[in-house]
């Protein structure tokens, strides 16, 4: 309901508008997740389950579609892709790394040789599931979109792999 030119009163160009969308969609949920991880008192397996639940909550909301948009437009807006990677993807991976370090320090997880790469292995399937739900799942007749099954299998696989 606004003119095409109105956003340019507030944003210098499309890239700046895109960055603002990313900040608005991902910034607050990421801050809340970080606060939750820092304040969590229980077992680290429960913390990981809660972090995954928070990610699912975000991913299945309309805001989760921003991840698909970022991936789809990374080639057209490389500065926006770098902005997302350095300001949001990195911090999301750091949350998973923090959880891994906590679990290892408490003897709840086995030692992991490469925490940073392991954090990527934890974070990326969640992001890709969000993208799959919005892209291929509606067209995949062989496997109905069932997020409950996905998250249960994901957590089973990850937690068994981290078991000391």
Mean pLDDT: 94
CATH topology: Tetracycline Repressor, domain 2
For the record, what is the CATH homologous superfamily label? Tetracycline Repressor, domain 2
Number of domains: 1
User: What are the segments in which pLDDT stays under 50 over at least 5 consecutive residues?
Assistant: none
The helix fraction, in percent, is: over 70%
Strand content: under 5%
Return the CATH architecture: Orthogonal Bundle
Q: Note the main sheet.
A: none
Counting DSSP E segments of at least 2 residues, the number of strands comes to 0
Q: Find the structural class using helix and strand composition.
A: mainly alpha
Radius of gyration over alpha carbons?
18 Å
Compute the number of helices.
7
Order of helices and strands: HHHHHHH
């Amino acid at each position: 309901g606004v003119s095409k030119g109105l956003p340019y009163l507030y944003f210098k160009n499309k890239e700046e508008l895109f960055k603002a969308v990313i900040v608005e969609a991902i910034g607050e949920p990421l801050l809340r997740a970080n606060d939750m991880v820092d304040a969590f008192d229980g077992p680290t397996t429960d913390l990981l389950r809660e972090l995954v639940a928070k990610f699912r909550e975000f991913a299945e909301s309309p805001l989760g579609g921003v991840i698909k948009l970022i991936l789809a437009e990374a080639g057209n807006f490389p500065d926006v892709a770098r902005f997302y990677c350095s300001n949001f993807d990195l911090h999301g991976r750091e949350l998973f790394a923090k959880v891994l370090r906590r679990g290892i320090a408490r003897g709840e997880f086995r030692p992991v040789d490469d925490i940073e790469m392991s954090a990527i292995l934890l974070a990326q399937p969640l992001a890709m599931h969000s993208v799959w739900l919005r892209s291929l799942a509606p067209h995949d007749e062989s496997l109905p979109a069932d997020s409950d099954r996905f998250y249960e299998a994901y957590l089973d696989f990850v937690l068994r792999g981290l078991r000391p």
